[in-house]
Design goal:
There is one protein chain. This protein has 176 residues and is an alpha/beta fold. It contains 8 helices and 5 strands, in the order βαβαααβαβααβα. A 5-stranded parallel sheet has the order 2-3-1-4-5. Helix 1 crosses helix 8 and helix 4 runs parallel beside helix 5. The two termini are 22 Å apart. Bound molecules: shikimate-3-phosphate. The site of shikimate-3-phosphate has 10 residues, from loops.
Length: 176
C-alpha cells in the first residue's frame, strides 16, 4: 500500500509527505525529484529547453515506475492529475489524499521560490486561478481532501493517519 498526495502547487505535498512517511516508516518519493534525477535537469530547465509536453511524458514514465513501489508516500507534481492514466497507475496500490489551500495561501507559499515555470507569469494570481479552475474536479477526486491552510502540518498528518487507520489501510504506530 502507498499513500499518494495530489494537489496544486504550494498545497504542501512535499512537506506533509516527508512528515507522513516518517510517521508511517514508509519511503518518501517525490515525483518531480525523480524526473529531475532521471533527466539530470531541473524542472525549470526541462520546461525551458523541451516544453511542457516533454515534461508530461517524462512525468508519466516516472509515475508508472513509482506506482509499483510498496510502503511509499508519493508526493506528485501538481499537474499529475491531468493525465487520467497517471491516476489509474497511482490508484492500483495507493490511497489518494488531496491537499488543498486557498489561492492567497498558495500565492504566499509559492512566492518564496521561483522554481515553478507555470507560475512565471506577470499576473500570477490570474494564472493560478485559471489553472485551479481547470483542475478543480481532478483534485476533488480523492479518497480524502485536507485543507492545509486550516491546520498546521502536524494536524494535517494526524488527520491523514486517522483516515488511513479508519480505512484499515495502515496499522500506524500512534505515538506523537
Ligand atoms: C506543476 C507542478 C510542479 C511541477 C511542474 C508542473 C503543475 O510540481 O511538477 O512545475 O503542472 O502544477 P509541484 O506541485 O510540486 O510544485
Amino acid at each position: 500500500m502507498n499513500v499518494v498526495l495530489i494537489g496544486f502547487m504550494g498545497t504542501g505535498k512535499s512537506s506533509i509527505g516527508k512528515l507522513l512517511s516518517a510517521k508511517l516508516g514508509y519511503k518518501f518519493i517525490d515525483s518531480d525529484q525523480q524526473i529531475e534525477y532521471d533527466l539530470k535537469m531541473s524542472i525549470s530547465d526541462i520546461f525551458a529547453k523541451h516544453g511542457e509536453t516533454y515534461f508530461r511524458q517524462a512525468e508519466h514514465r516516472i509515475i508508472k515506475k513509482i506506482s509499483q513501489y510498496n510502503k511509499a508516500v508519493i508526493s506528485t507534481g501538481g499537474g499529475v492529475v491531468l493525465n487520467k492514466d497517471n491516476m489509474v497507475e497511482l490508484r492500483k496500490k495507493g490511497m489518494v489524499i488531496s491537499l488543498s489551500a486557498s489561492i492567497d495561501t498558495i500565492l504566499e507559499r509559492t512566492n518564496r521560490r521561483n522554481n515553478r515555470p507555470l507560475l512565471e507569469q506577470e499576473d500570477r494570481k490570474a494564472a493560478m486561478t485559471e489553472l485551479l479552475a481547470k483542475r478543480a474536479e481532478f483534485y476533488a477526486d480523492a479518497d480524502l481532501v485536507v485543507d492545509t491552510g486550516k491546520y498546521n502540518p502536524q494536524e494535517v498528518v494526524h488527520i491523514i493517519l486517522n483516515f488511513l487507520k479508519e480505512k484499515g489501510a495502515v496499522y500506524a504506530k500512534s505515538k506523537g
